[in-house]
Design brief:
Layout (H helix, E strand, L loop, with lengths): L1 H32 L43 E2 L7 E2 L5 E7 L9 E6 L6 E5 L9 E2 L5 E6 L6 E6 L31 E3 L6 E5 L12 E5 L6 E6 L10 E2 L8 E3 L3 E8 L2 E8 L5 E6 L2 E3 L4 E2 L7 E6 L2 E6 L6 E2 L1 E6 L4 E7 L1
Antiparallel strand pairs: 1-3, 2-3, 3-4, 4-5, 6-7, 7-8, 9-10, 10-11, 11-12, 13-15, 14-15, 15-16, 16-17, 18-19, 18-22, 20-21, 21-23, 23-24
Length: 347
């Protein structure tokens, strides 16, 4: 009996010790889980990253970034629904803004810089072209379209996102020898694509109606100190390689690698993914993509709709929006080496 009691006592202490260790381990989990977890990051199925991520810093300040005007913007300015937040290389938040009470000749369209530390106005640049969001290149320079004065010509110029100072000697004016009265080269957002000698600022013409669209694309060489003429697909040229660019929202025109631009296009009612050389603007590949009507049957392009292109390695995934309620949306994956469709899924 004495031996039994000793065994029972030892067993009880072992269980208590094991329980305490297990409890301590469980209680320690929330501390580790305070880092941002990544699902499936380890074999133990704890869904935690192998290396702890940054701790949540907490909310520093809040700004209403809806389409409403007023308190959402710094005092004296208001944001429109085409104003997308762009992060400068120094962390400054840049947005298109309307200067309250100013007209075009007074430079009513601005780019404002918002201090990321407290949300206050850091700087503002007048005479920005309305509706044309800025972009940042591989050198950390911010670029935007400007119109100096009510009758001024469109100008691409870089600026310092930390100070809001436009950089002399970087501007390109005029943008192209294509009739400046016809295209609206920056209907939505400025895009920057490519790398090295192939880095380009990309603009596309949005002057066409939503139902008709327009084929115009303009590429400006920003690989050097100053912006220089690159290439243009003239929206007035009957020999343009496609009828229209399938994009009209403030989102980017498509996706790019270091050497090529990939956009959704339409020609004679046929939807396609088109590959364009950033070096010279030549179409180097194109593949027809399926479209589906509301019944899931294949159809042709009858209007204008948004297209998204994402690149993963050597695969481009193209999504069409399904034209609202009139069609079925679809994803198509294109092998960029063979330029053939790997798969298509409707949604």
């Amino acid at each position: 009996m004495r031996m039994t009691r000793t065994t029972e006592t030892s067993l009880g202490r072992a269980i208590a010790l094991t329980t305490a260790v297990a409890t301590a381990a469980v209680l320690a989990l929330p501390t580790a889980a305070a880092a941002w977890p990544q699902v499936g990051a380890d074999g133990a199925a704890t869904y935690q990253a192998e290396v702890a991520g940054p701790a949540d810093p907490g909310l520093k300040w809040f700004s209403d970034v809806s389409n409403e005007t007023g308190d959402a913007a710094p005092e004296g300015f208001s944001f429109g629904d085409d104003s997308l937040p762009i992060i400068g290389s120094d962390g400054t938040i840049m947005r298109q803004a309307q200067a309250d009470g100013q007209n075009v000749g007074q430079g009513n369209r601005h780019i404002v810089g918002i201090d990321p530390a407290d949300g206050s106005l850091a700087w503002n640049i007048p005479f920005a072209q309305g509706g044309c969001n800025p972009a940042v290149d591989s050198q950390g320079r911010a670029w935007a379209m400007f119109v100096d004065g009510a009758d001024g010509a469109d100008m691409l110029q870089s600026f310092d996102s930390a100070t809001g100072e436009r950089t002399d000697g970087t501007q390109l004016d005029p943008l192209t020898d294509v009739d400046p009265d016809a295209p609206n080269w920056c209907r939505n957002s400025l895009h920057i694509a490519g790398s090295g000698a192939n880095e380009r600022a990309i603009l596309y013409d949005g002057r066409g109606s939503i139902s008709e669209g327009s084929p115009g694309i303009l590429a400006i060489d920003i690989s050097g100190q100053q912006a220089t003429a690159g290439w243009v697909i003239d929206p007035n040229d009957e020999a343009a390689p496609f009828d229209r660019v399938m994009q009209f929202s403030p989102d980017r025109i498509g996706a790019a690698t270091d050497t090529h631009l990939y956009v959704g296009t339409a020609t004679d009612g046929q939807f396609a993914l088109t590959e364009i050389s950033l070096a010279d603007g030549q179409v180097t590949n194109s593949v027809d993509l399926p479209l589906y009507d509301g019944d899931g049957e294949e159809t042709t392009v009858t209007g204008h709709f948004d297209v998204s292109v994402l690149i993963d390695g050597r695969t481009a995934v193209v999504a069409d929006s399904g034209r609202g309620s009139s069609g079925t949306g679809a994803l198509s994956a294109v092998d960029l080496d063979t330029f053939q469709i790997d798969w298509t899924r409707t949604f």
